[in-house]
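pinging the channel bc i need a second pair of eyes. not urgent but kinda urgent?? the chain im working w is below, pasted from the shared doc
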Amino acid sequence: MHYKRILLKLSGEALMGTRQYGIDPERLKEYADEIKEITALGVEVAIVIGGGNIFRGLAGASKGMDRVQGDHMGMLATVINGLALQSALEDEDIPTRLQSAIKINEVAEPFIRRKAIRHLEKGRVVIFGGGTGNPYFTTDSAAVLRAIEIQADVILKGTRVDGIYTSDPEKDITATKFDFISFDDVLKKGLKVMDSTAFTLSQENKLPIIVFDMNTKGNLMKVVTGETIGTKVNL
């Protein structure tokens, strides 16, 4: 086992599967199965999910909605996704805890760092909802912040693309993939890995990021056991 404690970042869009919006139960089950495999190895798993399959604060703001109001709606969307993933994991008999950065005591624990670490040590999967609890910050920033707080070994960013490329591989057939790249080179080349706030926070705290295709069965297991899957961003 290469990594003992990981922070898995999933986009809200990933939960849509082949749908146009919302949550695909089949995709949820696939993710739950993948996560179950690595917890069986003793890997401690924390998860941050976006809310873009339900609502994006920035998109709302671009259409005239108050940005703070929109971001709060986005935070609630991440809690909904967290509840859905929690249900899918518990269907696989995986003990979980959902912690929220905004108080919703009836459905989630408040985020308490020491409690989150204790849950991980006891073998529970911890899902962090509500983003950072503040507007103007993305779930990428929430993922990096929580990873630093729980002292994760790595951030695993599960996407639909199998790594970082010289340009968008879905638009440019000549794009080439990086197996490894430094934080500095990502910035110099202007590559999009995470938003700049999240990326800078990860760089300053020497926390590596691996971008990989979460939708290919077995990839999560390969990443945590040290196989060269996706692209690793390091110092």
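so Residues 52 and 94 are 25 Å apart (CA to CA). and The mean pLDDT is 93. — does that match what u expected or am i reading it wrong
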